[in-house]
Amino acid sequence: MTEQVGKITLDYTHYPGEDFYCDGVIEQEILEIAKKYSPLEFPKIIEERKSWPILYHLSELRENIVDWLPMNKNMKVLEVGSGCGAITGALARKAKEVTCIDLSRQRSLINAYRHAECDNVTIHVGNFQDIEPVLPCDYDYVCLIGVFEYGQSYIGGETPFEDFYKIIKKHVKSGGRLVIAIENKFGLKYWAGCREDHLGTFFSSIEDYPEGGGVRTFSRKGLEDIFKKCGETNYSFYYPYPDYKFMTTLFSDKRLPMVGELSDNLRNFDRDRMVLFDEKNVFDSLIKEEMFPFYSNSYMVVIGEEPDLTYCRYSNDRSWETCIKTEIVEKDGVKKVRKQACNEFSADHIHHIYDSYKKLKERYKGSKLSINKCKLLKETLPCVEFEFVNGVTLAEIMDEYLKKDDIDGFHELFKEYVKRISYGEEWKVADYDMIFANILVSGDQWTVIDYEWTVDHAVDTREIAFRSLYCYLLENEKRNKCDVSRALDYLQIKPEDMPDYQAKEINFQKQVMGRRMSMPQIRELLGQGMFAPVKWMGKIEESAGKDRVQVYEDKGNGYSEETSYFVEDAYVGEHSLELTLKVIADVRHLRIDPAMDSCVCRIKEFTFNGEPIPFSNRKAVTINGRMAGNSMVFATTDPNINVHIENMNCKSENEIWLSMDVNRMDAAICADLENELKRKIRL
Question: How confident is the model at residue 513 (pLDDT cuts 50, 70, 90)?
Fold first, then answer.
């Protein structure tokens, strides 16, 4: 009942014998990647394959959501819904023992192969409800990362989320922590035109899921209401940005985002989206009105003792040698800032920061520019600690001048900046990244708080000042009112010199990223578009109603909205569906969504090139529901029937004929029917 993959044990004691959840043929491709390549090679694979599922399941940025949690090698962790192991590796590195649970054997094998060297991981394959009774109740951490929203599907009943919470909470030891990461139903990205993450539809969560279904996300108040009903009062909210899936920054109630910080909003990796407004500008307005927590795209809740960490930023989407994280911790009212290597390859980079502090301190001794104090800590991975400096950034002060249309004041401040950073220009050391956002101002005290990109040679002050101004303007087009030409005249930079300065900035960015692509570049690589609402009106109207049939074609890159189409007039009666599909030879898999709601379907006729399709044979057909004879039960608003064309006797052009009855039914009833079928199968 067990299988060994490297040092990892897979336990099949509760495995029903088949996977009821699958993303199609792409999962087999991911499994082959996990078998053949090391995680160090995954970034390159992601760039080469240009596939959303591969990015989603294999990106190391997925680990960020749990990496910051205070764990040690004496702790036991339970991960529910471990999937392909996106966060399992991070947990295994930090904890003594990790227990995973996932329904899918194939996904669990992917997890095992990518973490085969971890000797502290056990993966239980099967339904959570079957496995849960045998789990111990002494876990230091229980992690529900992208899982709690499926409480209705996991548990069912009238109060599924409260029941799910109570069931899972009993496995947390006294003094332990339960961790939940979940989308915010009112996340700003949904208002701005992103599709709901689970359903792929516009505004579904904002409208409180009018079409029903087995997935629910919540507002902060909605989550708090669940906790209170369960008698829970000890919890802390955190705000992963842009969201919990590919988090780069973690905010807290003690350290909320500041104006200008939230500019990385175009994160539609899996689907096209609309762009209804500029999210950065709206976020800035919400921050000023102290409304950010309500509109945060995601939440992370730590139930139990509040961690000391109040802020964390990851820079691990760049070269391995420069991957670090920046943390703000607060203990006993004292705040500290830390920068730590994310891996052994970036250890030298941390040591370089400490050396840079000592050199810059000497250069600017006696000037009107202070270098934030820094010390090297003895940690598992190298870490430097800085004093926490109060003040406002120079960028914020400049913004205030522009807001008041005080262009003269702006340029006087810019001149003062140039004067202060030019001190000791002849020294063979310079902070190349001395941008306005990296300088904190408190009265006449200017402090450089980040000097990560210090170089051991002299740099023309004009080059640093130009780059600072260039970065400042790129962040917000409203800043162009500052009269750039006036600043360039002061720096004595002529128009013909501009290409050279811009080329230096491009080279610097290449140095930071190494050979890796940034996440915005990957988004472009995946080809997901952004459209004005008018271009989408036809599709929105086409998608109206629940009695629609959508067909997806997989030609080797998995299913996507871009390779799908709606079948017109597929319904020949209130509950009767008939359709003929022409399928060319390069289609490997075909997915038919018979409705846009939970339903019970009965197949009357199902043929491929005139021959009956053996839909009880999983090599021919799989569904994301339960099958009994000629009937299928779908307890999801996204029912699908997958026809595996590549396993059939194909011609250059093929024909599928499907005739069936479709009865839309309440999701809870369908879930009960599925569970009853599952019970009978076990018997």
Answer: confident
